[in-house]
DNA sequence: AAATAACCGAGACGGTACGTCCCGTCTTCGC
DNA sequence: GCGAAGACGGGACGTACCGTCTCGGTTATTT
């Protein structure tokens, strides 16, 4: 519906606003003003700031055609460590963190957005990881992928404790042991 | 500050509103009207609906003197299964789920609330579990507690897949194996 | 400019809308939608809903080749009574009243429309009446025509009081007396 | 409801805006901004710009405690001439004319406002005039009052022709003659 | 019959205003 | 003199229309 030029302007405006204030303080009016676009144009294509931000994030990650590529060096421990480190870096990246937290919050009250999120970001990630585990003949690879991702996400989301290399190594070790791979 | 009678009325109003509409649609004005209290009275004691709801939840769980009691039957697998089942039941309890999701969302943008939450609810839970693990001589019990809780939370929060008894059993099994207890 | 077919569709749409809602609630978009015509087509030929309605009214009254014909029976009192009754019926006609009131309102703020209205509808009416008066040798027939029309219009416009046969008779009587014809 | 200070600010803002642009271009937002008042405050007490303007006009004419005082010099012709001249001056007063025209327009589509207008302004005027006529033993004084006022209003409203002293004199003469007073 | 306009529908677009909701502060008034 | 009731300035909401602007399809000539 929206012309490409318009989408681009809106994405840029949304991301720039996200960089300079609490995501919860971003408004439709603010995005419209920053993008030089009318509110109606926004509402024609998106129904909340959450949708716009998610769309902007998606567009950005597609631009960087950053499909989650899971490394496969042959050594599962090494690969999982790299994966965990990558995830942690991304979660902690100051240009992304606020956005990711806000998106997670939004998912709690917006089922449609949650479904989109699962399909577009979560499932590719989990199935990438479980695929790698399957290649290593790990049993129940989907569940083990969750065992791998869950604690990282839990720590990050509840800010319970910080991440360090030592913890990552121990975590990978525990996951492998649980999979019977050690 | 607020008189006990007032606190009670406000808590009741907040929880009753939470039971009948999306938590995000709860407003200070709505709570004041429902509680038969002036907005000023609300602002004297709380500064957001999030605070009121958190306070109401705390008060309720203290009333039910619901300290997280971790079972200790001697058989760690049995105890962890009971724990997981209890957590899952609580997370899925329709009278709580919306509130818990909303609270989780709120934590993402309110540091003070997040700190309170960690101190009052999260840490007691995690340390209860890790204490039980320590009694079973599991190494790094804090980390294993997180390995246990993280995936459950991840599934629930992202609604990625549903819980069933089979998955719980397998999950407990994996956690124990990762701890070297199997 | 506009093709005849288009003009007809637009007139029909405008009048049908006027029949089912307050005239002030008629919009260019509404007319376009009802007529199955694009907004641009409307703007090419008219610049406001007022113009369209006026145009539609004019077209309709030309169709009914409804030029104001002033009766001339020889008896001035009878003729004026018939005229007054006719005017009152037309003003009170439910299919016209809203339109006429709205048009009168519009005239207050649209000079161009007011001039068109005077030339196309008001002057023919007044000069028809004054012509009839002149034939009866009434002095200052234009002014007496206004004396005749003014109070009727005043009553209708300000809805001050309703019309009945008795009042009409007395009014005609007064007008004739003022003209020295009684 | 509205505090006196607020009403005053709003009235001043509305009248000042009316002085500098077409009345139809006055908006609730504009008045709110000019008055330094929130839109909600406006809507708490008035539901349209028409109501505000009418209220402002009323307040102003009450301030000047300008009840319509009908002169009574003993000579009816002299008094009616003075009355007509006064009405015409007021209708033509450039600071009022736009407002009065707009108000007349508004009355056509707002029944509540029309009723208020009749009760507060029109009836006092007409009954003042008919009272003066009654003192001069004119029969059907209410109807004659309308005969007097109607043509003046008709001329003004439809801008059909302008007023001059000669016309006024002839008009008064006609009205008196119709009443049998000449 | 093909080329060339004029006209049209559809509807995206930047805007302005609407009327509403809620925010957090301030004022009033009755107990 | 405290506290409910609620007025207030403010900001954002989501919607309705405004008038302008492409964009493809007809229609009707005009060659």
UniProtKB/TrEMBL annotation, chains A, B, C, D:
Keywords: DNA-binding, Transcription, Transcription regulation. SUPFAM superfamilies: Homeodomain-like (SSF46689), Tetracyclin repressor-like, C-terminal domain (SSF48498). InterPro entries: Homeodomain-like_sf, HTH-type_TetR-like_transc_reg, HTH_TetR, Tet_transcr_reg_TetR-rel_C_sf, TetR_C. This is Bacterial regulatory protein, tetR family. Gene3D superfamilies: Homeodomain-like, Tetracycline Repressor, domain 2. It comes from Microbacterium foliorum. Residues 27-46 bind DNA. Residues 4-64 form the HTH tetR-type domain. GO terms for molecular function: DNA-binding transcription factor activity; transcription cis-regulatory region binding. The lineage of its organism: Bacteria, Bacillati, Actinomycetota, Actinomycetes, Micrococcales. PROSITE patterns: HTH_TETR_2.
